[in-house]
Every structure is written in C-alpha cells, then in structure tokens.
Amino acid sequence: QLLQAAILTGHKTLSTIHAKDAIAVIARLEKMTVERMTMATKGFISLFMFQALVPTSCPKCKVPFSSDKGMAILKKKHLDRADIIVDEWLKIFKEVEKYSTIDFNPDNIYFVNDEGCENCSNGVTGATVVAEVLTPTLPVLRCIADGDDFAAQRAWINGGGRPINLHAADKVMQGTVCPINAELVVGPLLECLESLPDEDSKV
Predict the structure, then answer these.
(1) Fewer CB within 10 Å: N-end or C-end of the chain?
(2) What is the Cα–Cα distance from 156 to 162, expressed in whole angstroms?
(3) Residue 157: which residues within 8 A CB-CB, separation 6 or more?
(4) How confident is residue 203, by pLDDT bands cut at 50, 70 and 90?
(5) Which residues, 6 or more positions from 173, have their beta carbon under 8 angstroms from its beta carbon?
(6) Is the dihedral of CA 83, 88, 90, 91 positive or negative?
(7) Burial, 109: exposed, middle or buried (Cβ in 10 Å; 0-12, 13-18, 19+)?
(8) Residue 95's pLDDT band (boundaries 50, 70, 90)?
(9) CA 154 remoteness from chain centre
(10) What is the rounded (10 degree) CA torsion for 124, 129, 130, 133?
(11) Contact of 127 with 83, CB cutoff 8 Å
C-alpha cells in the first residue's frame, strides 16, 4: 500500500519481483493486493522488464551448426529427433528474420563444444543477457483492466514488443549463443512462432 501511494503521488519507484515473464508480473501484483484498475491507470506502471542469462559460446572452438560434428552434438542431445529439430529451427529462424534486424544465415549458427579449449570452460566464455521490456500502451492497459493478460501480451507484441525468446533467437542467429543453451533458458525455440505479431499488425 505504501508503494502504491508513492507511485500514485508521482514518485518514481523501482522494484524487483520473481515471475516467469514480464506479463506474469501483473498476476503477481494482483496477488499482492494491487488492483487491476490501479495497474491500468496511465502512468502507474512505466514498464515491466524480464531478463535472464544465457551462456555465450567460445568463438575459438564453437561448432558450426551444419557440420558433421554439429549434427553429432544435436543427435547426442535429442537422439532420434535431430533431423526434425533442424527442420523446425530453420523454419523458425526464417520467420524470426522477418521481424529482426539480424539476417539469418545457417552458417552463422553454432553449437557449444563441450570439450572446450584453452580459451574457455567447456565451450563457454561467459554469459549474455536476453530480455523483454513490456511498455504498457493504452491497448495493453485496457486488457489489464479487463483481466485478460493473454490479450495484453498480444497487444504488446502487435505493437512492436519482442518477447525474450525472440531476443534469444537473435543471439543464436548472430552465432554468440548455442540454440541448445538458448532453449534451456527461454524454452523451446518453436514457441518463437507464437511470439510473432499477427500478420496484419507487422510493425
């Protein structure tokens, strides 16, 4: 209540909260007795940010996606589904490219080399941030007030918002992140297709 009072009286307030993604913060706040009509008040929320860390692949020993060793790595992780997954990923990246500043080239996708080299630890050199920033536009605020968080997320996406899995896909297409590690953090890359704008709302 003190936090709500501070915000409603014009005080800029920063806070952290555990949630599975940016839109899930709405339900968390509601459980903490913040009313939806209050959240839907223009200016009450500046933005929701959700972020995670994904391991970065070693540039010295990472393995090309299309190489024999790359396929061996994929088969080791996914057994008999490797060929299906390759087809799925190629389809996903071609679609994501339409809404990205990154050009998709299969030759730029790499797997982590678990054996590593003198420049890394098991094929990893560190971590990079993947994130989503949900800015509550008027269409989003209306959906929040109506209690429809799914519609709020779609309104955000159709207004140009980019969910965290699309950010992760960008980094995979840049070659800095292994698609297998990306999926461990943000979930199946196939779900990227559900994170794209409706065709008639492309920004």
Answers:
(1) N
(2) 8
(3) 163, 195, 196, 197
(4) very low
(5) 93, 96, 97, 100, 102, 103, 104, 105, 108, 109
(6) positive
(7) buried
(8) very high
(9) 15
(10) 180
(11) no
DSSP output for 75-89: HHHHGGGHHHHHHHH
Q: At what angle do helices 68-78 and 179-186 cross, to 10 degrees?
A: 30
How far, CA to CA in Å, does 199 sit from each of 26, 89, 171, 187, 195? 27, 20, 24, 23, 12
Spatial separation of the C-alpha atoms in residues 57 and 43, rounded to whole Å:
40
Residue with tokens 């094929």: 123
User: Cβ atoms within 10 A of the Cβ of 200, count?
Assistant: 6
Both tokens assigned to 131: 């994130």
Closest CA to 58 of 138, 112, 135: 112
Pairing relation of β-strands 110-111 and 63-64?
antiparallel
Dist CA 203 CA 159 (whole Å): 7
For residue 95, CA distances in Å to 56, 66, 99, 113 come to 23, 19, 8, 27
Whole-model pTM: value is 0.87
How far apart CA 84 and CA 178 sit, in angstroms, is 18
174 vs 44, more confident: 174
65 vs 202, more confident: 65
